[in-house]
Write a structure and sequence with these properties.
The chain is an alpha/beta fold and 362 residues long. Helices cover 44% and strands 22% of the residues. It has an eight-stranded mixed β-sheet with strand order 2-1-3-4-5-13-12-11, with helices on both faces. A four-stranded parallel β-sheet has the order 7-6-8-9, sandwiched between helices. It is elongated. The chain starts with a helix and ends with a strand.
Length: 362
Amino acid sequence: MKKWLLSLCMILALTACDNKKETAQANSKPVIKIGASLPLTGNLSYMGISAQRALQFALDKWNAKDTKYKYELLVEDDSFDTKRTMMNTSKLVYQDKVKAFFTILATSANVASTITKKEKVIHMTSSYGSQPADGYYNFNNMTQYDSPTDLILKELKRRGIKSIGLLVSNNIGSFEQSELLEKKIKEDGTIKVIGKHVYNPGTIEFRMIIQKMIENGEPDIFYIDGLTPDATLVAKYLKEVTGKVNLTTINDFIETPKRAEFEGLWFVESASGTDEFNKQFVAKFGEPVFLCGANLYDNLDLYIEACEKSEHCENDEVVELLLNVGSREGAIGKYTMDSEGIIQSEANIKEIKNGKAIKVEE
């Protein structure tokens, strides 16, 4: 009996020693701090929270492996306010000494990059336009303007649309996307733009805007490009003013958690999460991933992979590895890293059915 107890004690002691050794080894790993400024409160909180979860999802994947480095994620709330984004970036870069920084949407990305470029901190975002990728240390994972613009024009023509009205938010991403769409529509010549209105972010009264746009005739379809809750409000007032909701967009229907106003409508969606990734995300968090979430998952996944492959996880060597990623498949589906640090991906036609965005097969 005593021998059995003695053996048991020795086994427990050895196990404890092994556990302490593993803990000591884990604690001795160099720490890589990763920062993010996201809208965790305000109108875009559902996107910010989704992005935060996606970052944590990617981190959990790597934490389950035997990595060379220990990765810590520090997230600050900017409520999609540029002043707060600037404060968060300053804190995380200068005080917390993060080696990599993550944002979503061009408004925040362009503010953060003024600091990250100066301090040579890797900045990975998911934003409209190529500008957020400007500079050696900046990367952008968002389907760029040409792909969704060409696809929406093709679908408009396929559906026999002859006239369109454009409602555009005065923010850099929405404005540049709509400018390209209008340019390509005019070059094609088969669809007429019979009304255009650029409104300021925060506009909530769209009734008079719509009434003025249809004074000289109602377009076959309206196009909205803005940020939540713009598309929902436009759909509501379109129904009140015209009796129907002839509306389409690039992305905005999926940027809104409650999609009852868009039921049955088609739109173009940037690459923002495969069905399989969405399934895994819902299983883990109980909610779907929203626009930019899967993109940030891939961003962090790429960054940590490059860190692990690098000699010392110094930013210059990590950037070189990132720029040589080439083509692969991730949470957003198939994508390619180009020489400018832009992750190129393809857009899809989708339709809102029972509140879900379902891909329309060609």
